[in-house]
Specification:
With 267 residues, this protein is an alpha/beta fold. The protein has eleven helices and ten strands. The protein folds into two domains: 143 residues, Rossmann fold, CATH 3.40.50; 111 residues, Rossmann fold, CATH 3.40.50.1860. The structure holds D-glutamic acid (DGL). D-glutamic acid binds next to α3.
């Protein structure tokens, strides 16, 4: 049934940047957003553990009768890349594939930078996928865990963030990149600061943008897009403190997140 919800998952507030893209493309879709704030951040965790978390949350989405899961977290996408098509309780789309394709298309000088979590960088997923598309392209990665923490606190500009961004980008800008992948869904929340520090010569790639388009395409192709002209229902769940989630979310995505519920840890 097309009116079934889309499940969206992240460790925290980052996945809201992907949810926003989905809403932009498909305002009528019903969404269930779930984040695992109690175990945030995922970046320093072993991928095998994150893989288990995602498996369990996908069962939660299946219990809610979702039609599709969007893994709105690069780290969890890396952890479960081989499971996305048919290894989970529901079909799932991750952000990494659409992001790598967008970056490979965007670069003109063949030098791409990636900012992401420690786990995403260690997996070398972006260099591998981009090399498969454009073998001559060079990809330089930079883990930026401090930016993940800032965005999760809702701190997305000001002198401290500018200094943190400057430090994260310096090694990449020194390599003359012309394209920068925001390889963690928390980072588009501070895209305005990143763009300013990267400068006009660097194209920013937010994998959430291409993922939003991919979700729309996938639903249309399987006749599951919701044709309703009304604005969809949006429900928010966290394993952490719902009031804190709402407080930060209303800074990051004003006017949308008004209520949230706590769900118990499922593992
Ligand atoms: N937003 C997530 C990502 O895209 C995870 C950040 C974290 O929990 O460390 O990787």
């Amino acid at each position: 049934m097309p009116s079934r919800s889309i499940g969206i998952f992240d460790s925290g507030e980052g996945g809201l940047t992907v949810a926003r893209e989905i809403v932009r493309h498909m305002p009528g879709e019903n969404l269930i957003y779930v984040c695992d704030t109690a175990r945030f951040p995922y970046g320093p965790r072993p991928l095998s553990q994150v893989r288990g978390f995602l498996r369990d949350f996908t069962r939660f989405f299946a219990d809610q009768d979702c039609k599709l899961v969007v893994v709105a977290c690069n780290t969890a996408t890396v952890a479960a890349l081989d499971l996305l098509d048919d290894g989970l309780a529901l079909p799932a789309i991750g952000v990494v594939g659409p992001g790598a394709r967008a970056a490979a298309t965007a670069t003109r000088n063949g030098r791409i930078g990636v900012v992401a979590t420690q786990a995403t960088c260690a997996s070398r997923i972006y260099p591998r996928l981009i090399a498969g598309l454009r073998p001559a392209v060079t990809v330089r990665q930079q883990p930026c865990p401090v930016l993940v923490i800032r965005a999760e606190e809702g701190v997305i500009d000001g002198p401290q963030v500018r200094e943190d961004v400057r430090r994260c980008l310096a090694p990449l800008l020194a390599e003359d990149i012309d394209t920068l992948v925001l390889g963690c869904t928390h980072f588009p929340h501070m895209q305005h600061v990143i763009a300013e520090i990267a400068g006009p010569g660097v194209t920013l790639v937010d994998p959430g943008v291409a993922t939003g388009r991919e979700v729309a395409r996938r639903l249309a192709a399987s006749a599951q897009a919701n044709p309703s002209g009304d604005t969809g229902r949006r429900s928010f769940y966290t394993t952490g403190d719902p009031q804190r989630f709402i407080r930060v979310a209303s800074r990051l995505w004003p006017g949308v997140v008004k209520t949230a519920e706590r769900i118990p840890l499922v593992v």
